[in-house]
Amino acid sequence: MLPCGILEWGVGTNNELEGKLTMKWLGVILLSMTTAIAAHGAVTKAVFGTMPDGKTVDVYTLKSDQVEAKVMTLGARVLSIRTADRDGKMADVVLGYSALDGYLDDQKTYFGAVVGRYGNRIANGAFKIDGHEYHVPVNNNGQSLHGGLVGFDKHVWEAKEIPGGVEMTLVSPDGDQGYPGTLTAHVKYTLTHGALRIDYSESTDKPTVVNLTNHTYFNLSGDAQSTILDHEVMLAADHYTPVNTVLIPTGELAPVAGTPFDFRKSTAIGARIDADNEQLKIAGGYDHNWVLNGKSGELKLAARVVDPKSGRVLTVTTTEPGVQFYTGNFLTGDKFGKAAEGNPKRSGFCLETQHFPDSPNHPAFPTTLLRPGVVRHSTTIFTFSTQK
Ligand code: BGC
Fold first, then answer.
1. C-alpha 116 – ligand 1 centre gap (Å)
2. Which pTM value belongs to this model?
């Protein structure tokens, strides 16, 4: 009926009813074609810069009917995400630099990066697999942070365009930063309407540990110089993992009830951030892992953040068991790159969906061990919308 209708319309039928029907079908087809284009979004590629060793860094621009996201091959990093406020005004809602040298100079923030092999900390840079002890570089108060000295954020990933997005691949050789096994990591970014989806998958040829996450800092106001203290946050978690003085989990899953860590009801980030609370003092604000309610491996609500001024809303869903809610306490306003761009303390927040920090040293935490023959998958979706 469908192709026949088009044919008839194409050759010019003189049956009026048939004509109306075929026009209607054509409308439906055209509408679904535009929806498909809008749903999948357009993808374009350009050069972002050149690494000191001459390697080209590309930027992929993903564009839907609602959002424009840029992702570069250095560190598989999110460079920018432009979304509308409640009046339809577009602005970039993530922190970053306008040129590559900003990212090369800045060794501290991990703006927008996929961090790995192990996102967040491993105590003393040591862990055991099958009785064998491994040592990875300590780069943060005697602990290993975000994969060590040359983590996944510092590598130029291979990239290829996929429908509505880009797939980045990094092969980390056996022994890279002290981690065992050749690890192959794929990270797919796809954009559909208001949703930026990240699909991770990893495989190895020797038992290893892996915990990839994305380290984007959001500021939903679109003004990267303002703080995020008035943003209202909901975290779907009854428990969090308290830390010791060097930000390593003690192993306890502590209830959030009755503490400044209770975000089960939407609360302004700044409402309790400087409360007289030992955990907040240790981290200089929020920099903790929340234990998400619901099953690990199933896509579930993790967080919802509202910027009351702009009306922008960010909803985070994930298959991961935890989320590191970090309020940019260590941002110092240092200026990096040609444009001398810097970001003040607490001008961005991260929602790093992940397995818990230091899991290799906590057998009771969901495991980060990956064995050969298994492909580990996880998904996180950042959805942008607005409210009045
Ligand atoms: C960590 C912070 C760290 C930040 C930037 C976050 O994931 O939890 O402690 O300062 O990354 O490195």
1. 13
2. 0.90
Segments of 193-283 assigned E as strands: 195-204, 208-209, 213-214, 217-218, 232-235, 237-241, 254-255, 267-268
Q: Which of 215, 239, 288, 355 is catalytic?
A: 215
Domains of the chain plus CATH, in order, are: 44-386 (2.70.98.10)
Other beta carbons within 10 Å of 370? 22
DSSP states of 310-347 as a string?
A: T-EEEEEEESSSEEEEE--TT----EETTTTEE--TTS
Of all protein residues, the one whose alpha carbon is nearest to atom 10 of ligand 1 is 330
Nearest-Å Rg of the Cα atoms of the chain is 23
Closest ligand 1 atom to the C-alpha of 330? Answer: 10
Q: What is the pLDDT of residue 39?
A: 60
Q: What is the pLDDT of residues 218-267, one digit of tens each?
A: 999 999 999 999 999 999 999 999 999 999 999 999 999 999 999 999 99
Catalytic residue among 202, 352, 355, 362: 352
State yes or no: is 352 an active-site residue. yes
Cα separation, 123 vs 251, in Å, equals: 12
- Beta pairing, strands 376-386 & 312-318: antiparallel
Q: How far is the CA of 142 from the centre of ligand 1 (A)?
A: 14
Please state whether 380 falls in left (phi above 0), alpha (psi between -120 and 50) or beta: beta
Report which DSSP code applies to 46.
Answer: E
Query: What is the whole-number distance in angstroms between the Cα of residue 299 and the centre of ligand 1?
Result: 24
In one-letter notation, the amino acid at residue 309 is: K
Residue 381 sits at the vertex; the CA angle it makes with 377 and 386, to the nearest 5 degrees, is 175
d(Cα 173, Cα 184) in Å, to the nearest integer? 9
Least confident of 75-79, 284-288, 295-299, 324-328: 295-299
H/E element holding 127? strand 126-129
Kind and range of the H or E run holding 17: helix 16-40
Active site residue 232: no
Query: Which of ligand 1's atoms lies nearest the C-alpha of 287?
Result: 8
Residue nearest (by alpha carbon) to ligand 1 atom 8:
287
